[in-house]
Write a structure and sequence with these properties.
The chain has about 300 residues and is of the alpha/beta class. It has one domain: Carbamate kinase, CATH 3.40.1160.10. The protein contains 9 helices and 15 strands. The mean pLDDT is about 90. The structure holds adenosine-5'-diphosphate and N-acetyl-L-glutamyl 5-phosphate. Adenosine-5'-diphosphate binds next to helix 8.
Length: about 300
Amino acid sequence: MTLEREAAANTAKVLSEALPYIRRYVGKTLVIKYGGNAMESEELKTGFARDIVLMKAVGINPVVVHGGGPQIGDLLKRLSIESHFIDGMRVTDAQTMDVVEMVLGGQVNKDIVNLINRHGGSAIGLTGKDAELIRAKKLTVTRQTPEMTQPEIIDIGHVGEVVGINTDLLNLLVKGDFIPVIAPIGVGANGESYNINADLVAGKVAEALKAEKLMLLTNIAGLMDKTGKVLTGLSTQQVDDLIADGTIYGGMLPKIRCALEAVQGGVGSSLIIDGRVPNAILLEIFTDTGVGTLISNRKRP
Ligand SMILES: Nc1ncnc2c1ncn2[C@@H]1O[C@H](COP(=O)(O)OP(=O)(O)O)[C@@H](O)[C@H]1O
Ligand SMILES: CC(=O)N[C@@H](CCC(=O)OP(=O)(O)O)C(=O)O
């Protein structure tokens, strides 16, 4: 067999092997959260866009929620505005909120939409303000140390939590074969803007759409223990213990919480996977070699 013929035979084999996986997910909705850290190169972004277009082409319905923490950080730095985080959430004053809205709703959202469309998809970019897609209220953060008799309330500014998702809009777009690309900006009862952690938005969107899967693409192999081993199949209690002993901190806190909550709220399974691996989404959906942290009521199929 010539080399060309051998390569073609391999391609045909790979496609054929994907058939049972494609059949399993046809017509199902998958919510994919694309973290700002997993957008670190043009090559990765292009690969992500192609994976999303391929999913749609075989009849699966991807809904994308994106982050952009590092990109917000870059512009804040250029503007000499300092920012800091509490429990993985950016403390957001009015000035920072303007920057968040510009970067997430403008630069990052349109960049992803453009990439998907250039590769043959029909992506529509939205923030939570479009048709009130993400209704939100101010997030209350509390902190308690062993010395304190009661928890103190910490004001982290214009940071929100999701109150409701406009599923009519998303269902309409999905039915029309569009790919929604959502920036995690919420709108309050009086039209005010809220900065919401993108993982939390993805979890709530997945719950509201009763998605088959929530995939959280990040810049690490998964949720790891202190020795660096990727942990999978964790219960709420195990996660609570890992938070209490400091194994889970920072940006992983909202991620693992929303992965658990989504499954408790009816999503088939949640996954935390390494978005730096080329074709991470395809590996997870169309093969048995998916890796990362799986939270599910079922066993990995
Ligand atoms: N137990 C843990 N396992 C893996 N990563 C962890 C853990 N605890 C904290 N982290 C941190 O969480 C980060 C992922 O969160 P984040 O930076 O917010 O990603 P993203 O931008 O993809 O949402 C990791 O890069 C790591 O620094
Ligand atoms: C409240 C809060 O922290 N919001 C995030 C929103 C973006 C985000 O979540 O981006 P990643 O997924 O890339 O981390 C922020 O301001 O960075």
